[in-house]
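Task 17 of the worksheet. Students: predict the tertiary structure of the chain below and write it out as structure tokens. Keep your answer in the requested format; marks are given for formatting as well as content.
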Amino acid sequence: MKKIFLASLLMTLSIFLSRIIGYVRDAIIAAKFGAGVETDAYFAAFTLPDFLNYLVAGGAFSITFIPIFTSFMVKGDEDRGWKIYSIIISIMTIVLVTAVIILEFMMPQIVQSMFPGFTQEAIDRTILFTRIVLPAQIFFYNGGIIAAILMSKKRFFAPAMAPLIYNISIILFGLIFSKWGMIGFAIGALVGSFIGPFFIPYLLIRKEIKFKISFNIKDRDFLHFIKLSLPIMVGLILVTLDDWLSKRYGSFLEKGTLSWLNNSRRLILVPIGLFAQANAQAILPFLSEYFAKNQLDEFKKLASKTVSLVFYLTTFTASWFILFNSEIITTVYKRGAYSIIDAQNTALIFLSFAFAIPFWGGIIIISRVYYAMGKTLPPMFIGAIMTLISLPIFPLLSDRFGASGLTLTISIIKALYFLTLVIFLLKTSKILSLWELIGDLVKILPLFAILTSFFYYIKTWLPNINPIFTLLIGSAIFIPTIIYLSSKVKIDSYNEFYNRYLLKILKKIFRLKRKK
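Model answer:
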């Protein structure tokens, strides 16, 4: 468990620093360019590249490759793992390069169909930015597979460094070329994708790589890899469609809507990245190893504890976001060209988006449990159903509530998706029981719902003062209250959080002080 804790801690720290750097990036963009055509086009430009990224780099292929490579290591046949690596890299790199070239030529038609509400100026800028950042997916893909090998070997440093370097590159190039609008930020994304996600992991494992060009598409392990990857690819497309659908319908709303959506989404992704993605990346190699070795007790213990812990932490953060949504957005974004109107609209979107956080985090962890067991089809089919359900809801709530209706739709769908994944897992797997998996959840949700409602009611009676002061004082009261009551209602995930994170960190800090 110590290795799992250290891996989780490293990935959490990496994502935390990445989110901080990402905030600096977004704050610079907001201050310099505000919320308008240029920023809407820039954020829209990442929609198509992000689809490819979820498919091949940060999604299906790297997720599938970890259990496969791990199984070969467990069997003492690592050479076979490198053979599959060679086939995957050889074939899929050719496929990806070809796809990028075709998409580059078809970009005008693609952008116009994806964002029909955009003006011609916005469409032209989106085409330019997308053409710049799209080739980055080639580096994300190759680096993603290398990172998967490193994580299979329980080496997390390079994967942890990749997003930091990527975001720093975006900021540096954006500032250097700021007089040309958002072009510098797009160039920075392309350069950063080469240095961070690809070059750094390659440097650390280059002496171990056993690569030989191979296009053996009939190899049984390669076919097994594709068989497992395809459902995840489709599933990830369906899960991430909410981003595109919100941007598509947002393109019909007032100027700046996509920038407001992006800025609220960036903050929502902070706890999801810190608590869900970091733990998901850390536990997948261990879950895969436990399942391959038939160590089902260890598998069950790790899965249930992680689900409970992540749900507790993400619900904690969601409650804080809901309670202080206006103060957080004002503090983070309101400066320079980002007006008070921009901040108010972003806060409204952010409020309805915050309800999705615990369910979104739960989806990420539960999906990894499925993948470690080799069950890639259920998340795909459930994701397809959720997408179909969302299609009429997006325009309905968008017409009724504007941009806030788009994020409210996402929150509803994430909750349904999480609950369906859990129910189906319990119905089809005898490894986990209902109480083991969601025992804490029935305590967590009522606790946070009651406390957040109470504090929100009290807050409405207080005078409007400095938002930073309100945020600091309110947090100083709210957070200790939550921690105290969590211990009283005996939430196991709270104890896990305390023992796994706080206690160990505090002990290390005090030891360092004593040594000094």
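Marker's comment: The radius of gyration is 23 Å. The first helix runs from residue 2 to 33.
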